[in-house]
Amino acid sequence: DMVETLDKPVEYVRRVLEKLERCKRVHGDAQVRVGVRGRAECPNYLIEYVRQDAKTREPVTHQDAAYSGSTHRELAPHHIAEARNWSPEEMNITAVSALIGRLRSPRAPSRCADED
Fold this sequence. Notes:
This protein is α+β, with helices and mostly antiparallel strands. The chain has helices spanning 9-27, 78-81, 93-104; strands spanning 31-34, 45-52, 59-67, 91-92. Helix 1 runs antiparallel to helix 3.
Protein backbone atom coordinates (compact mmCIF):
# COMPACT_ATOMS: atom_id res chain seq x y z
CA ASP A 1 0.00 0.00 0.00
CA MET A 2 1.66 3.23 -1.18
CA VAL A 3 -0.05 5.34 1.51
CA GLU A 4 2.35 4.00 4.15
CA THR A 5 5.35 5.47 2.29
CA LEU A 6 3.90 9.00 2.06
CA ASP A 7 5.48 11.81 4.09
CA LYS A 8 2.16 13.39 5.14
CA PRO A 9 -0.56 10.97 3.99
CA VAL A 10 -3.63 12.99 5.03
CA GLU A 11 -2.34 16.24 3.51
CA TYR A 12 -1.18 14.51 0.30
CA VAL A 13 -4.48 12.67 -0.23
CA ARG A 14 -6.47 15.82 0.63
CA ARG A 15 -4.62 17.80 -2.05
CA VAL A 16 -5.12 15.01 -4.61
CA LEU A 17 -8.82 14.96 -3.74
CA GLU A 18 -9.03 18.75 -4.36
CA LYS A 19 -7.64 18.24 -7.88
CA LEU A 20 -10.05 15.33 -8.47
CA GLU A 21 -13.02 17.44 -7.35
CA ARG A 22 -11.99 20.28 -9.69
CA CYS A 23 -11.72 17.85 -12.62
CA LYS A 24 -15.09 16.29 -11.78
CA ARG A 25 -16.76 19.74 -11.71
CA VAL A 26 -15.38 20.52 -15.17
CA HIS A 27 -15.61 17.12 -16.88
CA GLY A 28 -18.17 15.14 -14.84
CA ASP A 29 -15.66 12.43 -13.92
CA ALA A 30 -12.24 12.10 -12.29
CA GLN A 31 -9.64 9.48 -11.47
CA VAL A 32 -5.97 9.54 -10.48
CA ARG A 33 -2.82 7.58 -11.31
CA VAL A 34 0.32 8.00 -9.22
CA GLY A 35 3.81 8.42 -10.55
CA VAL A 36 6.00 5.33 -10.35
CA ARG A 37 9.36 6.88 -11.23
CA GLY A 38 9.69 9.65 -8.64
CA ARG A 39 9.93 9.89 -4.87
CA ALA A 40 7.72 7.40 -3.01
CA GLU A 41 7.15 9.82 -0.11
CA CYS A 42 5.46 12.40 -2.41
CA PRO A 43 4.81 10.91 -5.86
CA ASN A 44 3.62 13.03 -8.76
CA TYR A 45 0.11 12.22 -9.93
CA LEU A 46 -2.00 12.36 -13.08
CA ILE A 47 -5.66 13.38 -13.03
CA GLU A 48 -7.82 11.88 -15.79
CA TYR A 49 -11.47 11.62 -16.73
CA VAL A 50 -13.43 9.09 -18.78
CA ARG A 51 -15.96 10.07 -21.44
CA GLN A 52 -18.03 7.90 -23.72
CA ASP A 53 -17.06 8.22 -27.39
CA ALA A 54 -20.05 9.67 -29.27
CA LYS A 55 -19.69 7.28 -32.23
CA THR A 56 -18.41 4.02 -30.74
CA ARG A 57 -20.03 4.39 -27.28
CA GLU A 58 -16.73 3.08 -25.86
CA PRO A 59 -15.25 4.72 -22.75
CA VAL A 60 -12.24 6.89 -23.61
CA THR A 61 -9.77 8.13 -20.98
CA HIS A 62 -8.61 11.75 -21.31
CA GLN A 63 -5.74 13.29 -19.33
CA ASP A 64 -6.66 16.44 -17.43
CA ALA A 65 -3.33 17.45 -15.83
CA ALA A 66 -0.28 16.10 -14.02
CA TYR A 67 0.83 17.54 -10.69
CA SER A 68 3.95 17.60 -8.56
CA GLY A 69 3.52 15.42 -5.49
CA SER A 70 5.56 17.80 -3.34
CA THR A 71 4.11 21.19 -4.39
CA HIS A 72 0.79 20.08 -5.99
CA ARG A 73 1.51 22.52 -8.83
CA GLU A 74 0.68 21.55 -12.40
CA LEU A 75 3.52 19.92 -14.35
CA ALA A 76 4.42 20.61 -17.98
CA PRO A 77 2.34 18.60 -20.51
CA HIS A 78 5.30 16.44 -21.62
CA HIS A 79 5.11 14.65 -18.23
CA ILE A 80 1.62 13.38 -19.09
CA ALA A 81 2.59 11.78 -22.40
CA GLU A 82 5.26 9.57 -20.86
CA ALA A 83 3.05 6.55 -20.05
CA ARG A 84 5.77 4.70 -18.13
CA ASN A 85 5.75 7.54 -15.56
CA TRP A 86 2.28 6.49 -14.34
CA SER A 87 0.86 3.52 -12.49
CA PRO A 88 -1.29 1.24 -14.66
CA GLU A 89 -3.84 1.28 -11.82
CA GLU A 90 -6.17 4.23 -11.37
CA MET A 91 -8.26 5.23 -8.38
CA ASN A 92 -11.60 6.99 -8.80
CA ILE A 93 -12.77 9.97 -6.75
CA THR A 94 -15.06 7.79 -4.59
CA ALA A 95 -12.17 5.51 -3.60
CA VAL A 96 -9.93 8.50 -2.79
CA SER A 97 -12.70 10.02 -0.63
CA ALA A 98 -13.01 6.71 1.24
CA LEU A 99 -9.23 6.55 1.65
CA ILE A 100 -9.00 9.99 3.26
CA GLY A 101 -11.79 8.98 5.63
CA ARG A 102 -9.80 5.91 6.68
CA LEU A 103 -6.63 7.98 7.10
CA ARG A 104 -8.39 10.52 9.31
CA SER A 105 -9.94 7.84 11.55
CA PRO A 106 -7.66 4.80 11.22
CA ARG A 107 -9.43 2.81 13.92
CA ALA A 108 -12.85 3.00 12.25
CA PRO A 109 -13.90 -0.38 10.87
CA SER A 110 -13.73 -0.64 7.09
CA ARG A 111 -17.11 -1.16 5.45
CA CYS A 112 -15.66 -3.62 2.98
CA ALA A 113 -12.18 -5.08 2.76
CA ASP A 114 -11.45 -4.37 -0.91
CA GLU A 115 -12.77 -1.01 -2.08
CA ASP A 116 -11.18 -1.03 -5.52
